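User: Need the bound-state model for zinc ion:
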Amino acid sequence: MLILTFEKQKTMTEQILMIVAILIIVYFVVRMSKKIPSKLAQDDELKLTEKEELKLSKERKKALNEKVSFYKNLNDKDKLSFEKRVLDFLNEIKITGVDCEAEELDRVLIAASAIIPVFQFPNWSYRNLDEVLLYPLPFNAHFSTEGDDTNIQGMVGNGFMNGKMILSKTSLRQGFQAEFDKKNVGIHEFVHLIDAEDGAIDGIPKVLMKQQFVLPWMNLIYKKINEIEKEKSDIRLYGATNEEEFLAVASEYFFEHHVQFKKKHPELFEILSYFYGAK
Ligand SMILES: [Zn+2]
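Assistant: Bound-state model below.
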């Protein structure tokens, strides 16, 4: 009886052990089978992201080649560095379409506008920018794109505009469409941000210049604004608004139509070349 009981107990123990062993095996089989598909899914995702990235890069490269003459005129090595900086910019700065889609072309043009003025400064990053808002059309002071007074094509500023830039999508594209019209709203707004790096948007980009150049620069600004006001200049009228607009407008011309700018405004060409590290 006792033996029987023992035998019975032994059998029961064996059975329990067997059940435990089976459970352990089942646990590992289930775990493995779960793991394999999830690993595969991850790999698939990775491949897709890589492919997507390549596709985007091609699209971006195409946009640069077709629309950005500054990029087209670079040598192969500089082109690569420009492409890398486009990628870095797009990873760093949020671009949001407001009532419109921020397409790949728009993103590339915004990045190009940011990089062109600071291309000679490889470590530059826009510390005073975290988001670019893209409006479908020019807007008015109330940020509406409807009405007769919608003449603002781009904007940066302080207060609620801190860290933000607004660009009109049509104006941004137009800026890269007409190569020699001396107008590029993207470059214009980024020049304001460069000017703002020292704490003030005042037409004196202190981060780009030595102190002793401030006074000669101010004198040159007033001389050139005077020429615009007397209609003796081919720098557009908006540049005569004040010192900061003069810097932004003259810089658009400098980057868009380098050769003509040098010929017509040699003194200004020298100092802007110095600011933007081209000399
Ligand atoms: Zn401006």
